[in-house]
C-alpha cells in the first residue's frame, strides 16, 4: 500500500451537483466497486482539466487575426482608390505593410496551434 493510501482522509470537500449528476456518479462508483470519494479522486488526479485561460487566449488570438485581415482589406481598398479620403501610399510602402500584416497573421496562427496542442 502506498503512503497516500495509509494516511487517513479526514477532510471533506463539497461539490454542487444536480440529482441526476449525483445518481450518475454513485452508479459509476458502484460499477467500479469503489467509493464515491475514490471515484472523484481518481478522476481528478488522473486527468488534466481544460484551462479556461488557454481558451480565452485562443479567442483573443482569433480576434487579432480577424483584425489584421480587416486592416489588410482597408489598405487594399485604399490602394484601389475605393476610399477617396484615405491617405495614399506608394506601391513599395503598401507592399511592405501587406507583407507585415501577412507575417503577423501567420504568427497568430502558429500561436493558436501551439496553444491548442496543450489542450
Automatic annotation (TrEMBL):
Protein name as catalogued: Mobilization protein
One Pfam entry name: NikA-like
